[in-house]
User: Fold these one by one.
Assistant:
Number 1:
Amino acid sequence: MKTDLDPAIAARLKRTPDGLVAAIVREHDTGDVLMLGWMDDEALHRTLTTGRATYWSRSRQEYWVKGATSGHHQYVKSVALDCDGDALLVTVEQVGAACHTGEHTCFHTELPVTGGERR
Amino acid sequence: MKTDLDPAIAARLKRTPDGLVAAIVREHDTGDVLMLGWMDDEALHRTLTTGRATYWSRSRQEYWVKGATSGHHQYVKSVALDCDGDALLVTVEQVGAACHTGEHTCFHTELPVTGGERR
């Protein structure tokens, strides 16, 4: 996919075998972790230049702008890249629910931690 | 890789082409997003049953227990799976710096957001 992403940024990305980096989405006002999306170079370019969080859908194999159908828009406040280039921290103003289920965040299935030194 | 991960959990995971889910690591006390790691089924199993955050290193192609060499341990408080099974939110007590650079978090490169309706 041809993209206009700044080559200096593109050179720092460390992608999955299918060309994606993980985008952690955090709510600006609360600090809550809302969801994880996936971005290829072009999705990152669109996110940075439009101020609207844009992802690559692994299931549908297409770009999607968060909120385009649901109205649950994400206005981008800031984007930070991590030290090894495989993850982004996208801070947004979230309109409505982040999760397609209607929940505030996508992380609503607790897994049992059964062992260890829990201080 | 043979694993003893609960098959009911394994059945919910949606992995990258190389068999991994993204693990977002959040600090319990502050809510800060510290880093992103990768887990295959066995790394998740070890994390849940030992209470110590354990990842799969994509660069070294091996398991690593956070803090094993640095002393910067992560004691796991909770683990939540997201709605589509491709991401985990791991809440930890972090000892020392989360990033190998010595920074508190791994997200220390701000990217320019140049466009859009920033409210």
Number 2:
Amino acid sequence: MAKRLAGKPVVEKIAEEIGGRVASLADKGIVCGLSLLRVGERPDDLSYERTAEKRAESLGIEVRKTVLDEGVSQAGIEAAIDEVNGDESIHGCLMFRPLPSDINEQAVCDALATEKDIDGISSAALAAVFMDRDFGFAPCTAAACMRVLDYYDVPLEGAHVVVVGRSLVIGKPIAMMLLRRNATVTLCHSRTKDLAAVMRAADIVVCATGRARMFKAECFSPDQVVLDVGINFDEAGKLCGDVDFDEVEPIVGAITPVPGGIGSVTTSVLMAHVVEAAERTTSA
Amino acid sequence: MAKRLAGKPVVEKIAEEIGGRVASLADKGIVCGLSLLRVGERPDDLSYERTAEKRAESLGIEVRKTVLDEGVSQAGIEAAIDEVNGDESIHGCLMFRPLPSDINEQAVCDALATEKDIDGISSAALAAVFMDRDFGFAPCTAAACMRVLDYYDVPLEGAHVVVVGRSLVIGKPIAMMLLRRNATVTLCHSRTKDLAAVMRAADIVVCATGRARMFKAECFSPDQVVLDVGINFDEAGKLCGDVDFDEVEPIVGAITPVPGGIGSVTTSVLMAHVVEAAERTTSA
């Protein structure tokens, strides 16, 4: 039986860290402000929004919601971003994506001030991740994976990590973050040959394809640490990861569950980034 | 005996392509302008400068040299960059690096206008490489490796490429460029465990560590394609790559020599980027 790398204690640890920092900021008269920017009424967005609101509330972070009509124009979204940029009571902004398909999403992302881009969606933030520079914020999901690895003391130096999925939300940024910690990183994707064999050879596997239970027993080997980043629904409507947990859990050394794994930590990382953004305004 | 992936035919092909494009630009009254910006008198820089000047001349590209004193200030270098940015007769700029250690090099790189940054040194250009966006220019050495692979019809889709070295000049950007072409990419470095075994398992190996002849026979296997990006001098003062060519060449399927390999193509790519930059000004 694998060790279960639950998100809960990581969430609790982050909450504890944040608690003191929010209090220190309050002493200086600063209330952390989180902007949630949503276009339309997609159920996924609404669900994440509710989670973020609750979490923020419990931590003393103030939430400002902006909801735009699904038919909003490019200029309309960029005006909302400008408002966020200009509002000193807002320290960080989470914009739900994808935006409607007629919108130039990258232009919107790049309009967000780097110091308020707490989910690493702007080119400047991603450049910093690529270049190992300490400014801006990394995408929250990638940062959440790093938090989980560190919380459970998974050695990264010299470890061989296979990352499956090459998105800018998780695959590429986490590859850079792991590389910075001296891991050897293999980036895989849908065109990788003998994917199962490549995965089996790794010390750590990060699964980030967004396909329900696509990774079965043949992709894993004993003692591996498996991070399952997927948040999918199966045919029965049940929440599940990219990994077939029931099949894989008996084989590997440690694995994050879904739900209750990386996803739960991601929201906490978002809050930590808001607090960090607020702190940076005081030291600037 | 391995197939020798010489740079010469690649250089000739690029020169041929450029020839027609320089002529078309001339028809529109545009002479391609290349700025070479150098601080101090480092022999490496002088040597690369001479090569670039000669190559530019032979292609009808005009060179403007700016030489700053080694003791130049941050403001002094940035003023030189501003001049390049503002000069319409200059389409691209190559700045020799590293800059003196008291200079904030990244700030200087980021001061260069993205459209004139033909060696991909600015954060914006590197972000574009990371994000697979088609603007700016990739670092020339990484682009030269891609040119060589394509010239010799090395299949990239699904190929497993091991890149040794994680610099922003070559390792990281070429990893992204290969990933975009659907290769599976492993990024290795000085802390990689069992490096030789990892290298032996690859279809293509890119060696970019800058250590003279550090890669011996044990790092390679039959049929591999080896790109040697190193430009080093051995104890005897002889130019050599990162790969021990004499030892490795009999084993692998194909290999780039040093000299006469990637390095020679890099200068050509720089020229191609200047021409491309000049063309972009006409379509803007």
